[in-house]
Structures are given as structure tokens and as C-alpha cells.
From TrEMBL:
Reaction(s) catalysed by this chain's protein: S-hexadecanoyl-L-cysteinyl-[protein] + H2O = L-cysteinyl-[protein] + hexadecanoate + H(+); mycophenolic acid O-acyl-beta-D-glucuronide + H2O = mycophenolate + D-glucuronate + H(+)
Role of this protein: Acts as an acyl-protein thioesterase that hydrolyzes fatty acids from acylated residues in proteins. Regulates the mitochondrial S-depalmitoylation of the nucleophilic active site residue of peroxiredoxin-5/PRDX5, a key antioxidant protein, therefore modulating mitochondrial antioxidant ability. Also catalyzes the deglucuronidation of mycophenolic acid acyl-glucuronide, an active metabolite of the immunosuppressant drug mycophenolate.
Protein name (Swiss-Prot/TrEMBL): Palmitoyl-protein thioesterase ABHD10, mitochondrial
Keyword terms: Hydrolase, Transit peptide
Cross-referenced Pfam families: Abhydrolase_1
EC number of this enzyme: 3.1.1.93, 3.1.2.22
Keyword Transit peptide: yes
AB hydrolase-1 domain sequence ranges: 25-135
Taxonomic lineage from the root: Bacteria, Pseudomonadati, Pseudomonadota, Alphaproteobacteria, Sphingomonadales
GO molecular function, one term: hydrolase activity
UniProt KW ATP-binding keyword: no
């Protein structure tokens, strides 16, 4: 793994990231909610990029992983701007966005800003609009009153918070209630045993994307994380297919 670096935002926020140069488009991995760049999917993508001479960037949103800050200050818009700032600072002309869970929502928001610089997207259990469909009405009322809700966390001992600022920003950035003007290739990988994000969200997202190059792959026994060896192999194959198709001939 390459050296950990920090990019300073205009307000002083320090965004941790790793970058390996190589042939483009650059693979940019966007972690899920309360996740970071040390996960198995991120590591596998980075290792594949290094081994094949491809460019790749991993990152931690502010308040997550090795990026300092308070998690409760995080919002989709704030983290989207951090991703774009890193892409701009590294002068990455073409990128391939890979978004896991919440990162799948963020990749749509990043693509909306970067336009045709995004050469493709791969979603892994992508969760656009989960502040709408993933939160009960009674909890939405609590969040609207400015209070945090806490839910059981199946992946760790501490409960998972949803802070009112994050929820409000999510509601302001809903994607599935309109067409999504992206014309590049998209691959959506989703487990049908996903207890966090229904696999029907992948189908709904595919319908909303304007692109005709959208493929949905359902893994019948796959869970939300899709981190088994076979799942990661599928991810690597999907990413490699799009990267190779978008790499100019020497």
C-alpha cells in the first residue's frame, strides 16, 4: 500500500487518501456509511490497480477512518465536495467511480458534478436515497426535530447513529425520484440476501439512469457487504472490464 497522504480543504479539513499512478481512467473507491479505505473491497481494488499498472485512489471522508473530524458533521454534500476536491487536486482527467452502499449514492452525486469526466460507475449494494426509504416515519419525525436516532449495528458493538444534519442533506439530494442524466456504462452488483439495502433498489436505479449501458447483477446468496472471495472477484472483473474498455490504446 502506498503512502498515506492528506489533502487540506479550504476550511482546514484534512482528507486522508492513497493514490497509485498508472493508466486511466483512475479508479476512485467511495466507502459506505461509517466505513473507510481499509475494507477488503478497497484493498482488493488497490492491489489490482498496482499489479496491472492502473491508477487508483482510496480515501476516507472527514470524520471517518484516518481523516480527522467529527462524524456528526458529515453530510453527503460535504463528502461529495471532498471527493471532488481530491480528484481536482490530483488532476485526474478521467475517473471510474466505484461506490459501496452509501458510496453508491455519493458516486451519483459526484458524477452529476463531474459530467463526462466520469467514464463509468460500479455500484456495490448501492444505496441511493436511504434517508427516505431506509428510515421509518417515526424516526424521520425525530430527525426533523433535530435529534439523532440510533439503530442496532450488525457489524459492530456500537449502535449506528443517523444525525439530523446528514438526514436533512440526504433528503435534499434524493436521486430516485427523477431521471439520472448519466450516459456511460454502469454495473450494479447486489446481493439478494441484503438485509440493509433491498435488491430492488438496484433495479430501480437502473431504470432511473439515462444510460443504455446499465447491467444489474444479482447474487442470490449475497449479503450486504459482498466481501466473500467470489464477490470480490466479481467486483474486480466488473471494474477491470470498464477500465480496459475506457483506456486509450498505446
Amino acid at each position: 500500500m502506498t503512502e498515506l497522504r492528506f489533502h487540506e480543504m479550504p476550511d482546514g479539513r484534512q482528507i486522508a487518501h492513497r493514490f497509485t499512478p498508472g493508466l486511466g481512467p483512475t479508479i476512485v473507491f467511495l466507502p459506505g456509511y461509517m466505513s473507510d479505505m481499509t475494507g477488503s473491497k478497497a484493498a482488493a481494488l488497490f492491489d489490482m490497480a498496482v499489479a496491472s499498472g492502473r491508477a487508483c485512489m482510496l480515501l476516507d471522508y472527514s470524520g471517518c477512518g484516518q481523516s480527522p473530524g467529527a462524524f456528526e458533521d458529515g453530510t453527503l454534500s460535504r463528502w461529495r465536495d471532498e471527493v471532488i476536491a481530491l480528484i481536482e487536486a490530483a488532476n485526474l482527467r478521467d475517473v471510474l467511480l466505484v461506490g459501496s452502499s452509501m458510496g453508491g449514492w455519493l458516486m451519483l452525486m459526484v458524477a452529476e458534478k463531474l459530467g463526462d469526466r466520469v467514464k463509468g460507475m460500479v455500484g456495490v449494494a448501492a444505496a441511493p436515497d436511504f434517508t427516505e426509504w431506509g428510515i421509518a416515519q417515526m424516526d424521520k419525525n425525530v430527525l426533523a426535530d433535530g435529534e439523532t436516532i440510533w439503530e442496532d449495528n450488525p457489524y459492530g458493538p456500537e449502535p449506528t447513529p443517523t444525525h439530523p444534519g446528514f438526514w436533512a442533506d440526504g433528503q435534499a439530494n434524493l436521486m430516485l425520484d427523477k431521471g439520472i442524466p448519466f450516459d456511460g456504462p454502469v454495473r450494479l452488483l447486489h446481493g439478494q440476501r441484503d438485509d440493509d439495502v433491498p435488491w430492488e433498489i438496484a433495479v430501480r436505479l437502473a431504470e432511473k439512469l439515462r444510460s443504455s449501458e446499465v447491467q444489474v447483477t444479482l447474487i442470490k446468496d449475497g449479503d450486504h457487504r459482498l466481501s466473500r472471495d467470489a464477490d470480490i472477484h466479481l467486483l474486480l472483473r466488473s471494474v477491470a472490464e470498464l477500465v480496459l474498455a475506457r483506456t486509450p490504446a498505446a
